[in-house]
Amino acid sequence: xxxxxxxxxxxxxxxxxxxxxxxxxxxxxxxxxxxxxxxxxxxxxxxxxxxxxxxxxxxxxxxxxxxxxxxxxxxxxxxxxxxxxxxxxxxxxxxxxxxxxxxxxxxxxxxxxxxxxxxxxxxxxxxxxxxxxxxxxxxxxxxxxxxxxxxxxxxxxxxxxxxxxxxxxxxxxxxxxxxxxxxxxxxxxxxxxxxxxxxxxxxxxxxxxxxxxxxxxxxxxxxxxxxxxxxxxxxxx
Length: 237
Ligand code: CTP
Ligand code: MG
Prior knowledge:
Blueprint: E1 3-8, E2 26-27, E3 30-31, H1 32-41, E4 46-53, H2 58-67, E5 75-80, H3 85-94, E6 102-105, H4 115-126, E7 131-137, E8 144-145, E9 156-158, E10 166-168, E11 172-175, H5 176-185, H6 196-202, E12 208-211, H7 222-236
Parallel strand pairs: 1-4, 1-6, 4-5, 7-12
Antiparallel strand pairs: 2-3, 6-11, 7-10, 7-11, 8-9
Helix pairs in contact: 5-6
Bound molecules: cytidine-5'-triphosphate (CTP) and magnesium ion (MG).
């Protein structure tokens, strides 16, 4: 079987604050996207990485890929993304060549996922699961609320049992045909699905969880940049 990784990297990074698109911002001197590409290419199973670039960013992404050391065994493709993560993933899937039968979808915003987590996801797909999600137990208790206007107290509706909840990460791994079918069938909703496995669930196909990793956290807000740079510094120490 051949495995490709699609990396949606077309978001602006609004929650990170003003500046370049999030995937192009540096972590200890290297663009977040390059860290994420290396994290996927570190798996010997991954033969192709498809980067979904920000609008107007495809040329810059191509030159970044050309100017950073990457494994020789891996092929790279760059396509331009869409207005939502879901659209960007779909555009990445559309670029996959024949012969790929396992697809990972990995956020550029999770630049530090360890290769063992990547390989664990691929192994579970190879073992027969059509959709595999790395995830961790939650540290915080979670409340479901009735949303109110900003600043208004929000009534609590329910407290799901924390032991049964998981915070999901990427790379999420899929049987290619299943993921393509999900993206063709599941209706585009609002700002788009935040999770590819959720679209497979809507097809009625089984989704399984394997262990995620603390270092696969998503860089979303400025504090996450501090954590990511500390993790990189610890790796080099
Ligand atoms: N993404 C994408 N295309 C979009 C929106 C998001 O490819 N139209 C990608 C982002 O680049 C990121 C991943 O999806 O790698 C996860 O999204 P998120 O963390 O929400 O990143 P942004 O959308 O860039 O951030 P924000 O929501 O704060 O603007
Ligand atoms: Mg977003």
